[in-house]
Structure formats: structure tokens, C-alpha cells
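Thread amino acids onto this structure.
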């Protein structure tokens, strides 16, 4: 691991931005793996600002998102499709056809998983951006997920559904399943950039870096990846 410790969330976003921008400007056709959640929002704002003020072009950029809920139409305000457009893509000049997000309302979701994995095989992700869950999850790969997994369907844990219920009109509307890149999928990307801030990530960061390589901490699989950059604030690094 290359570990960069910073003071706070804003500095973490700035460091992550430097890494992402370098990937974008150094490849003819950069292939970015992207994440949702609260962590990348600061980074995405910086990418949008940089595009606007410096004209950094995303015309040739290709993206693959980690995951998506199953069963919601794309236009639903809680899909990761909507999140990514609102928080990143709408502010860049990336062609819509270059954007890949698992199609959660496909009428054949297992086939969609295979198709998504095949598409990534064709492009090879240059850099995969990751957040990490307090329990060490990456993507929707919760503790206990096999390290051999490719893009697959997951049943959402009741706790995850309850946590997300506030974004929906009622708990019944919260999806029960999602599509996620698997751990083996994530391991195929040439580089991984994992960003984590806050004390509630400290145990997960410890487990990822110093803990045993174990399905109990999905992120610990990254100990076997040759090129991982970890950007953490002091709070998230406090148990290292
Ligand atoms: C996002 C994702 C999740 C988040 C993780 C951390 O696409 O797959 O694994 O990265 O849950 O979420 P935040 O950043 O909200 O703490």
C-alpha cells in the first residue's frame, strides 16, 4: 500500500483529485472505475471545477461504476445512475455512451452481470476508486463474500436497507438487492485508489492494511493487489 495521511476530508479530496487527474491526462483513453457514497463527492466536485476552469477534457474517458440497486428505474432519484449524473457526469464533457453503470432495472439481471463483466474485460480499468464501509466492505461486497466473485447480485442486509430508508418514502420501497462488481473484479483493475475519512472507518482501515487477509474484512483482499493508493485522514488512520 502507498498510504497518504492527511488532516481532513477536504485534503483527502484534493489528494484524490491529483491522482485521478494524473490518470485522466496521462492516458489516451482513460478507463476509470467509480464509486458512489459520501466519500467521493468532494473529489467529484474538484473534477467538475477543474473541467470548468481548466478545460480538462473527459471526451475520451470511459467509466465503470462499482454497483447499482436492482429494481429501480434509472430516473429514480435514489439510483446510482442519478447520483453519478448529478454529482459528476453532468459537469463534465463525457459522452453518455462512455458511461457504464450496471443496469439495475434490466429484465435479465444475471445476464446483465455477465455483460458488465465482459465489458470491463474489453477495456481494463486503469484506476478503480473505492470507499470502504465501517465493516470493511468494498462495493456491495459485505464480510463473508468470496474473493473469487465477479460482478454478481447481492441481497442487501436489513441494516443497509434500514440505513437507506430515510431516502425513500417507505422501507418497502428500499431495494432488496443490488448488482456489484465482485472482489475478483476489483482486483483486476491496474490501480486502486481507496479514500476513507472519519473515525468510524478506523477499524476497517486497520483491518484492510494490518489485519489478516480474510473474507471477514473484504478490503483485506487488497493486500494482494500490487498497486493500491490509500488516502486517509488522521481519524481514519488512528488505529494503524
Ligand atoms: C459505493 C460503494 C460503497 C461505499 C461505502 C462507503 O459505490 O460501493 O462500498 O464506498 O459504503 O460509503 P461512504 O463513502 O458513504 O462512507
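Threaded sequence (240 positions):
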Amino acid at each position: 500500500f502507498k498510504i497518504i495521511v492527511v488532516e481532513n476530508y477536504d485534503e483527502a479530496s484534493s489528494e484524490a483529485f491529483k491522482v485521478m487527474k494524473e490518470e485522466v491526462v496521462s492516458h489516451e483513453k482513460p478507463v476509470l472505475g467509480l464509486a458512489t457514497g459520501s466519500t467521493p463527492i468532494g473529489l467529484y466536485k474538484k473534477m467538475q471545477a477543474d473541467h470548468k476552469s481548466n478545460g480538462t477534457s473527459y471526451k475520451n474517458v470511459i467509466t465503470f461504476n462499482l454497483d447499482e440497486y436492482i429494481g429501480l428505474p434509472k430516473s429514480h432519484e435514489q439510483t446510482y445512475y442519478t447520483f453519478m449524473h448529478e454529482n459528476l457526469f453532468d459537469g463534465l464533457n463525457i459522452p453518455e455512451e462512455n458511461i457504464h453503470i450496471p443496469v439495475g432495472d434490466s429484465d435479465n439481471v444475471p445476464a446483465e452481470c455477465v455483460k458488465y463483466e465482459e465489458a470491463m474485460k474489453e477495456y481494463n480499468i486503469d484506476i478503480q476508486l473505492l470507499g470502504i464501509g465501517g465493516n470493511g466492505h468494498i462495493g456491495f461486497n459485505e464480510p463473508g463474500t468470496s474473493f473469487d466473485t465477479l460482478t454478481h447480485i447481492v441481497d442487501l442486509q436489513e441494516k443497509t436497507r434500514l440505513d437507506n430508508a430515510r431516502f425513500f418514502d417507505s422501507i418497502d420501497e428500499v431495494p432488496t438487492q443490488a448488482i456489484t462488481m465482485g472482489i475478483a473484479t476489483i482486483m483486476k483493475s491496474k490501480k486502486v485508489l481507496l479514500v476513507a475519512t472519519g473515525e468510524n472507518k478506523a477499524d476497517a482501515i486497520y483491518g484492510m492494511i494490518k489485519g489478516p487477509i480474510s473474507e471477514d474484512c473484504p478490503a483485506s483482499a487488497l493486500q494482494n493487489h500490487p498497486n493500491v493508493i490509500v488516502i486517509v485522514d488522521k481519524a481514519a488512520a488512528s488505529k494503524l
